[in-house]
Structure formats: structure tokens, C-alpha cells
Design goal:
The complex is a heterodimer of chains A (371) and B (325). With 371 residues, chain A is an alpha/beta fold. Chain A has helices at residues 12-20, 46-71, 85-93, 108-113, 118-126, 149-164, 182-193, 226-229, 241-256, 287-294, 298-308, 314-336, 343-348, 356-369; strands at residues 25-26, 100-102, 170-175, 198-204, 207-208, 211-212, 233-237, 262-267. In chain A, the strands form two sheets. Chain A has a six-stranded parallel β-sheet, sandwiched between helices. In chain A, helix 2 (46-71) packs across helix 3 (85-93), helix 5 (118-126) packs across helix 12 and helix 6 (149-164) runs parallel beside helix 7 (182-193). In chain A, 46% of the residues are buried. The chains are: A alpha/beta (371), B alpha/beta (325).
């Protein structure tokens, strides 16, 4: 027997539309480098604008060199960053030195610009413990390999700032795939419940290795996932450095004023493979999609914007490129000079006080190493 | 000195450390105003405020991440996992993160976190409350795993755990929480981690054990005494790292040994103790080192606990096999 038809208690379509309407994309610069949203324009000096461009160009070169150094066997694990310069660098640019960054495995550039010496970033890539010996006063964690773990830890770092009464924020990054993790949700929810000063960024480059974002979730935006934590969420054009900067700066403002965390989705694209460990994007991405996103290159639009203001030219750009190449060469030299790791080194850094088994094994390996 | 149950001794240890070090933070599910589901944190929020002793959302992984993050800010977190069966939700924060923080940063940072959690059978808890999962933790380099069996040990070991600069898993056996009282000194004292305790001296056989099985072993030792056998009972107290010196000195004296654990035979730390004895004292042994452990099934339904959990009778039976080998 057919059940009695009732009036629908939930207008499912409307519920979704009402949510989705809240998450339009913030854009300030279009692909031609024209300001399309004057009202949202961040307050940056000419010098700051030039510095941000300098960092973006520098990091594009760093990516190109890192890929070729990896191919030559001079670097190890490497996750390409080209295409994500606005998302990674404009977000870091909106921070202060006392702010703490918890990066994912692809987020080496933001921690380098936050103070990690380049040679240590190279040592981390190669797999050397000195890469993780973060200098005093540099407020970063080393890149997190377990996707989502950085999110729950960010809630803790942010709560720490709140408890210490320090006006600073903890900022973390994950990718689009990472938003499916439990820790992603728990991290934002904890920070929300404690009104902790945290900024959660999901860099949506549309692919988690080969899996398109449509296979991660039925949610129309990732930004709306903030709703589940009861915190503000915003979707920004992640190829637009000014929009990313404005969104992070505003989130930082809210956080240090005690208003709690924000979740930011940056719409971006990685031009290269997932990592240098044999990933081949032509297996899962079309040339059309690549072309579409290459037109959105953050460097191109920011260059046009600055050139129109008379703040950038080819000479400046070449200077940066030369500087980057020079620095990379120096950093490699320094990384090469790091002493070879010994088992006794690894034992020494495992515990503060060595347990009996490690004490014994230390002696065994010390004897081996002295042969 | 005061007469205390183990749970009171545990509360007292946290009180001492909250007072002693402003960086100590106690948090978890229902540890605040409620004082914990076992009253382990009773009165602490009242005394030290919500800033130091606080409730969390119901998410173990989030609790673990919170602890790691707070330790990056120089705090000394003492999070509680309500029952250790829920550790699966927070395995990454413990084994993948806290245990490796010092190593990953080349000694730059460390994670002085004490994860407190109840476990243990005999009190008819529902599924996933009583499982003995110390073996999982004992296999993770970077972690220490502590299991007290008396109020006195619990307080001194918990203070040491909180002061330790590396992560410690502090497991509290539910059946021992209130089963007896003991004289516990007021204020501050510590028991070194990694040090076993000879709970009873003997000359014929070494019984190496921990947790609730310490008391089963002591009971067995009394019975064995009546039959003319002198058993030495060693309470490991720290199951990772184990106290090799105390174990080997005892085995060299007695020439016979058994290892007694509540965990399944394929779990726990018994196999490691046997292996260490075989490596280091084979020439002193008159008989193989046998193990008393639970059967290799999933933890029993509550009504099957009595038939499943090892007890003093199993200890006597196994001890006799070794004594008459």
C-alpha cells in the first residue's frame, strides 16, 4: 500500500541553495590584472606589493629548480608548487613573525618565507634530520605528511596563544583531498569550540593526486564546510594574490581580536605533477583544463597589475630570478656540507633520556661507526 | 601519610603537578566540572580554574592534536582518553606525531605529554573499554608506557610521567581504582620510570608481571609458599622500556621464570620479556620461560570475563609447570 503523501517538511533544494549562496568567490584582480573589487582592496604599500611579487617570482624559480634538482637526484621528496604562489605566499605575507605556521607537505615555500633557511628545506627534502632543526624564533612546524594532522595540531597551537595571552594566530594548510579527513573537521571544530585564534586554509587545486575534487564530496564549495564547525568560511580566487592576502589579513584580525577561527578555501591549480615520485598528470587531467588554468597564472595577472602602476618591469624580474638561482646554489652547497647522518645521531634525538635499549644500541653503533 | 585508593592517588598526583608547574594542563572528555567518569579529576577544575582543567569536544584525535599543539607552545599537557579502547581514534596523534616530534625536529622540540587512560577487565564494561592495548604502544619508539598496580606507585609514577620531557602513556587498571587503600605520602615524591619493583622476594621462581596481574601473582605466590615454593614477584611498573637489570638479576638468582599479563598471548609485552631473558640469561635457566596470558580472541563479552581473564590459578598452574620441568 502506498504511504500517505505528506507536505515536505524540508525543501531540500532550497536548503542547499541558501547555504551555497553564502560562498561566492572573493576576487580582487581578474586575469588581466584589473581591479574588479575596489572595496576589498587590501592596504598595501608599493614596496609591499613589489615584495610580494618578488617572492612569487622567486618561488616559481625555486619550484623549477627543485624539479630539475630532484630529477638529477640532488633533492629527494618534492611536491611541486607552481600555480599556487598566490595561495601560499600571499597568505604567509598576511602574517606577522610571531604567528605560527603548520604546513602540509606541499607548503615548504610559506615556511621558507617565514624564516626556515633554504638549505634546511633542501635537507628536509633529502631526508636529513638537520632539516627539521627549526631555528630559534622561527614559528613553524615542519611539513606534515599525515594529511589532516596539522589541522588538529593547529587548534592546539592556537589555544596555546590564547592561554598565553599572545596576540598571534596559528595558520595551517591542507589540500582539497584533505578536507575529507576526520582531523580536518575535528581541528576546525575544536578551534571553534575554544574560539581559538586559528586560520585554516584548504588549497583547492582540484586534484588529490588523481582524484578530482568532485569525488571528495558532494558539497558545492569546500568553504561551506566551515558551517559544520560554526565558524566563518570564505572562498577566494587562489590565483589572485590580493584576494588571498585580504582574506587572510581579515581572518587574522578577527582571530587576534578574540573572535575565533576562519576557514579559507583558495581556488588554485598545481601546474606540475602531484609529487616527483612518478606521478603523471596526463593520466587524469585534460590539456583543456591545464590551458584554462594556465591563463589564470597568479604571476601573470599580478605582473600586469604592477606594470600598470609602474612598479614592475623586466629588469626587476630578472634581478629576482638571478638572486633566486644564486641563493639556491648557495643553499645546495650548504646542504651538501651537512655531515652524513649516523645511527647514533638518530638514537640521540629519539628520547630526551635514553631508555636501556637505546643506550645499549648506542654503544653498539658507536663501536661500528668508529671502525 | 594518608590512606588512599589508586584513583585518589592519581588525583593527588595531578593536583601536585598542577600546583607545581603552571604549564601543566589537564583536559579530556568530562574531566572538568564532572570530575571525570571515574572521579580521577574530581575537584581539580574548582581548585585550578577552567583555564587549567577543561572539557573537550568528543573527539580523541582532536584531543591528541590539541596536546601536540599545546606542547609546541611550551605547555605540559595531561590529556585523558576516557577508555583506552578508544586509542584507535588517536593512534596517529600518539604514535605518528607526539612520539616523533623530538626526532623529526632533530631534538629541537619535544612533546612532554602524559596520556592518561583507564583499561582492564573484571568490571563488566561494555565493548572496547577493557582491552589491554599496551603492546601497541610499547612497539612505538619515542614512547614510554607506564602501568601502576598500587596507589603508592600510581602517584609517584604519574608525577614522574608528567615531569618527563617525552610522551608517556599512563594506563590505569579500572579494577584497581578502588579495590584497596594504601598509605600514600602527601605532597611531592617520584618513582623513576623504567624501574621495576620487587613486590615479593623469593628464590625458586621469578614471576614478572604488571597491572592487575601483580595482585593475582602475589596471591599465587602465597599459595605456592604453602606448597613449599618461594616465588619472587616483580612488578614491571613501566612496560616500555622494561627494567632489564631487575629482571635479569632475579632470573639469575631463581633460574626459573614466568611472565604474567592480562592481554592476549599475541599482544601485551610478555613476548618481549621472554626474548630479553633468553638473550641475556639463557645459561641461568633451568626451564623455559612460560607465559600466562589471555586467549587470542577478541576481548570477552562481559559475562565471559571470569572464564577468559587470567587469574591466580593460572599463575599457580604455569609456575608449577616451570618449577617441575
Amino acid at each position: 500500500m502506498a504511504s500517505k503523501t505528506q507536505n515536505a517538511q524540508v525543501d531540500a533544494k532550497k536548503v542547499l541553495e541558501v547555504v551555497e549562496d553564502q560562498f561566492t568567490t572573493l576576487q580582487i584582480l581578474n586575469e588581466e590584472g584589473e581591479v574588479v573589487n575596489e572595496a576589498a582592496m587590501p592596504n598595501l604599500s608599493d614596496e609591499q606589493l613589489q615584495e610580494l611579487m618578488r617572492r612569487m617570482v622567486y618561488t616559481r624559480i625555486l619550484d623549477q629548480r627543485s624539479i630539475s634538482l630532484n630529477r638529477q637526484g640532488r633533492l629527494g621528496f618534492y611536491a611541486p608548487t607552481a600555480g599556487q604562489e598566490a595561495s601560499q605566499l600571499a597568505s604567509q605575507f598576511a602574517l606577522e613573525k610571531e604567528d605560527f605556521i603548520l604546513p602540509g607537505y606541499r607548503d615548504v615555500p610559506p615556511i621558507v618565507w617565514h624564516g626556515l633557511p633554504l638549505y634546511q628545506a633542501f635537507l628536509w627534502s633529502r631526508g636529513h634530520f638537520e632539516g627539521g632543526q627549526i631555528p630559534d624564533g622561527v614559528n613553524i612546524a615542519i611539513p606534515q605528511i599525515i594529511i589532516g594532522a596539522q589541522y588538529v595540531q593547529t587548534a592546539g597551537v592556537a589555544l596555546g596563544f590564547k592561554k598565553r595571552g599572545v596576540k598571534a594566530v596559528a595558520l595551517t594548510y591542507t589540500g582539497d583531498g584533505g578536507t575529507s579527513q576526520g582531523d580536518f573537521y575535528e581541528g576546525m571544530n575544536f578551534a571553534g569550540a575554544y574560539k581559538a585564534p586559528a586560520i585554516f586554509i584548504a588549497q583547492n587545486n582540484r586534484f588529490a593526486i588523481s582524484t578530482p575534487v568532485e569525488k571528495q564530496t558532494a558539497a558545492k564549495t569546500l568553504a561551506q564546510k566551515a558551517v559544520a564547525a560554526g565558524i566563518p568560511g570564505i572562498q577566494v580566487d587562489g590565483m589572485d594574490p590580493l584576494a588571498v592576502y585580504a582574506a587572510v589579513r581579515e581572518a587574522r584580525e578577527r582571530a587576534v581580536n578574540g573572535e575565533g577561527p576562519t576557514f579559507i578555501e583558495t581556488l588554485t591549480y598545481r601546474y606540475g605533477p602531484h609529487t616527483m615520485a612518478g606521478d603523471d598528470p596526463t593520466r587524469y587531467r585534460t590539456a583543456e583544463l591545464d590551458n584554462e588554468w594556465e591563463k589564470k597564472d597568479p604571476l601573470v595577472r599580478f605582473r600586469k597589475f604592477l606594470e600598470k602602476k609602474g612598479l614592475w618591469n623586466e629588469e626587476k624580474e630578472n634581478e629576482v630570478i638571478e638572486q633566486a638561482k644564486e641563493d639556491i646554489k648557495e643553499a645546495l652547497k650548504k646542504a651538501d656540507a651537512a655531515p652524513k647522518q649516523k645511527v647514533t645521531d638518530l638514537i640521540s634525538i629519539t628520547n630526551t633520556d635514553l631508555p636501556y635499549n637505546l643506550e645499549e644500541q648506542y654503544e653498539i653503533y658507536k663501536a661500528k661507526e668508529s671502525k | 601519610m594518608a590512606q588512599m585508593t589508586m584513583i585518589q592517588a592519581i588525583t593527588d598526583a595531578m593536583r601536585v603537578e598542577l600546583k607545581n608547574d603552571p604549564n601543566v594542563l589537564v583536559f579530556g572528555e568530562d574531566v572538568g566540572v564532572n570530575g571525570g567518569v571515574f572521579r580521577a579529576t574530581e575537584g581539580l577544575q574548582n581548585e585550578f580554574g577552567e583555564d587549567r582543567v577543561f572539557d573537550t569536544p568528543l573527539a580523541e584525535s582532536g584531543i591528541g592534536g590539541l596536546a601536540v599543539g599545546l606542547s609546541l607552545q611550551g605547555f605540559r599537557p595531561v590529556p585523558e582518553i576516557q577508555f583506552f579502547g578508544f586509542v584507535y581514534e588517536v593512534m596517529d596523534s600518539i604514535s605518528g606525531q607526539a612520539a616523533r616530534l623530538r626526532y623529526r625536529t632533530g631534538g629541537k622540540f619535544n612533546a612532554p605529554i602524559t596520556f592518561r587512560s583507564p583499561f582492564g577487565g573484571g568490571v563488566h564494561t561494555p565493548d572496547m573499554h577493557a582491552d589491554s592495548l599496551e603492546g601497541l604502544m610499547a612497539q612505538q619508539p619515542g614512547l614510554k608506557v607506564v602501568i601502576p598496580s598500587t596507589p603508592y606507585d600510581a602517584k609517584g609514577l604519574l608525577i614522574s610521567s608528567i615531569r618527563d620531557n617525552d610522551p608517556v602513556i599512563f594506563l590505569e587498571h579500572m579494577k584497581l581504582y578502588r579495590s584497596f587503600r594504601q598509605e600514600v605520602p602527601e605532597g611531592d615524591y617520584t618513582i623513576p620510570l623504567g624501574k621495576a619493583d620487587v613486590k615479593r622476594e623469593g628464590t625458586d621462581i621469578s614471576i614478572i608481571t604488571y597491572g592487575a596481574m601483580v595482585h593475582e601473582s602475589l596471591k599465587a605466590a602465597e599459595e605456592l609458599e604453602k606448597e613449599g615454593f618461594s616465588a619472587e614477584v616483580i612488578d614491571l611498573r613501566t612496560v616500555s622500556p622494561i627494567d632489564i637489570e631487575t629482571i635479569i638479576a632475579s632470573v639469575e638468582k631463581t633460574g626459573r621464570a614466568i611472565v604474567v599479563q592480562e592481554a592476549q598471548k599475541q599482544a601485551g609485552v610478555g613476548a618481549n620479556v621472554v626474548a630479553e631473558i633468553s638473550d641475556r640469561a639463557i645459561l641461568s635457566l633451568e626451564a623455559p620461560v612460560l607465559r600466562v596470558a589471555a586467549p587470542d580472541t577478541i576481548y570477552p563479552f562481559p559475562q565471559a570475563e571470569a572464564a577468559w581473564l587470567p587469574n591466580y590459578k593460572d599463575v599457580i598452574e604455569t609456575a608449577k609447570k616451570v618449577l617441575t620441568f
